[in-house]
Please model this.
Amino acid sequence: MKKDHKISEKSHNLFIFLSTFFIANALLAEFIGVKILSLEKILSINPVNIPFIGDSFLSLNMSVGVIIWPIVFIISDVINEYYGRKGVQKISLIAALLILYSFVIVLFSTESPPADFWLENNSVDSSGNAFNINFAYNSIFRQGMGIIVGSLTAFLVGQFVDAYTFHYLRILTNHKWLWLRATGSTVVSQLVDSFLILFIAFYLLGNWSFIEVISVGLIQYFYKIFIAIVLTPVIYWMHIVIDKYLGEERVKEMIEKATTA
Model:
């Protein structure tokens, strides 16, 4: 009885850890995602400027938030493997509610009147130029709110698509080829996520053109697929660690239950 209780507690603790890490990265991605970074500048290379639609070009630009989304993919797939698609759906809904809660708090913070001494103490930048910190604060966070609305929609749709695709591929492959269901679910779900968030956040609620949405969306999508493939060994490593932590018998039982649920 004590042994069964200990195994059950380990399973519960694992779910809490994975869920917390999942939510933390999802929230971080929401708030840092307002900045569009240039991979070309990071790599110190000239702009690639690949000819695209009309007079537009594709460059290696993407949301900073996209950088940590592969962590969300990995955790989502691990939760799906041991706790099934219902486990992923449950934690995705909780994450969505917390993102919505964050949206309300951010809205309150940007609408609240600033203190005069705060404005005065931050009235110039490091170079001595006039600086309106309240305007900067509101500009950043209100952009973030647009991303939160877009990302909340894209996040839920993408996670549900990912959960069902992973589950379907697991049944189709009879528990074999973990790399296929992990990468395959990412390929399908992120095709939705990568474009939906940009369309809502920057086209409908922002000032981007449709061509800019498509060009940045393509770069982000290819980046996510590339990273998903590169990080495949990490998923296998996590399985080894978790299997050792839970025990072979418990793992077999959980995966069987996750498959049929």
Notes: The chain is about 75% helix and 5% strand.
